Amino acid sequence: MGERLLVILGGGESGVGAAVLAKQKGYKVFLSDGSSLKEVYRNELNAAGIEWEEGQHSVDRILQADEVMKSPGIPEKNELIIQIRKKGIPIISEIELAYRYKGDSKVVAITGSNGKTTTTSLIYHIFKTAGLDAALVGNIGESFAKQVALDPKPVYIVEVSSFQLDDIIEFRPDIAVLTNITEDHLDRYDYKFENYIRSKFSITKNQKTGDYFIYNMDDEVTMEYIDQFKINSKQLPISMAHENSGAFIKDGDMYVRTGDDFMAMSVYDFTLKGKHNQYNTMAGCLAGTTMEIRKEKIREAVQTFQNLEHRMEHVATIRGVEFINDSKATNINSTWYALESMDKPTVLILGGVDKGNDYSLLTDMVKEKVKAIVCLGVDNQKIHEAFDSAVSVVIDTASAQEAVVAAFGYSEKGDVVLLSPGCASFDLFKNYEDRGAQFKKAVIDL
């Protein structure tokens, strides 16, 4: 039979991680990327002796594959994917490949339209505080497959997107978390919201009776569809409106129940502020209790958790204007979530290297929440085209300091200045961390 050929489409973090794992497990591996690879990934592939190509797809060679792993960024409508499907070659996602080789390790998987990065990070913090040797993988940080290949752990905490869930076969988390479902990425689901919803719920499709499913019973979409899926795992709801068998908040206290055990804690002790973060915290605490982590450890973790730097990070409030650093928002969806959580008039700092962004996804949110847009990029033409008619002020700046000064000028007491660029940072900065750091310095210097 010979070696099985695994073709990997897309040479980003997940593609390269999958290539490394597949090569280690004895597959013949060929990685193909239609655009160019980052230097660091080229070096990694060469060091592992993996064949790759960039700037093109050798279709004949790809169609020889026994199996194809595609990057979550490649839609089903892609011509190459259509040909692969037509030939009947199975397509899997990186999380499926990683799952195949994870051994006895436990998997906690988190998905949802909003809040998944925060919830994932909090669960990791709870597990680490309790002394569990866990890895934080998926959309956040390292690729799941690369972690399995190079540094296997007894527990993987994986942030998964709907795109990754679209191509699972056996992937089965011991604990699945669905934070919520809002209309997002509909372009990838033939503009049918149901397709996107089905994709999110597939996180439960292989679960067995001993597994857990944590979901938000206050989320209308989740509740409208939950009965349409056969869910075998033990369901643990979270809510602010209903007392339930999972976790709920009542009169400023959170109660967490799994089985006979019960813990209570004041929401004022949460380091994460804001209503959406109370849901994230409940989900995190439930994940902790299902892993039988002691209440004291969960409580300690929730009181010491620091939100990620550059992810909706409060920098300072100056003369009544709050500055928030969300430099980690390198795509439009991230910016959408950031705006969605704003409850004050917002001056938005937007722009950078655009990866074919469709700014129209932000139009309604911008009209509702944003009073001025400050562009921070070398070429801001598309932003002007998208928003000049929607917002009265759209201006150009060429440095973090200039952007902060301009944004402050358009703000008044009670407003928020939000750096949530929706773009990569390479035109003016080294990376998103550098962009966030320069923004924070400029705010402090005001």
TrEMBL record:
Single annotated GO MF: UDP-N-acetylmuramoylalanine-D-glutamate ligase activity
Catalytic reactions of this protein: UDP-N-acetyl-alpha-D-muramoyl-L-alanine + D-glutamate + ATP = UDP-N-acetyl-alpha-D-muramoyl-L-alanyl-D-glutamate + ADP + phosphate + H(+)
Keyword presence, Cell division: yes
InterPro entries in UniProt: Mur-like_cat_sf, Mur_ligase_C, Mur_ligase_C_dom_sf, Mur_ligase_cen, MurD
Keywords carried by this UniProt record: ATP-binding, Cell cycle, Cell division, Cell shape, Cell wall biogenesis/degradation, Cytoplasm, Ligase, Nucleotide-binding, Peptidoglycan synthesis
Domain of life: Bacteria
UniProt keyword Cytoplasm present: yes
Function, in words: Cell wall formation. Catalyzes the addition of glutamate to the nucleotide precursor UDP-N-acetylmuramoyl-L-alanine (UMA).
UniProt-listed HAMAP family: MurD (MF_00639)
Protein name: UDP-N-acetylmuramoylalanine--D-glutamate ligase
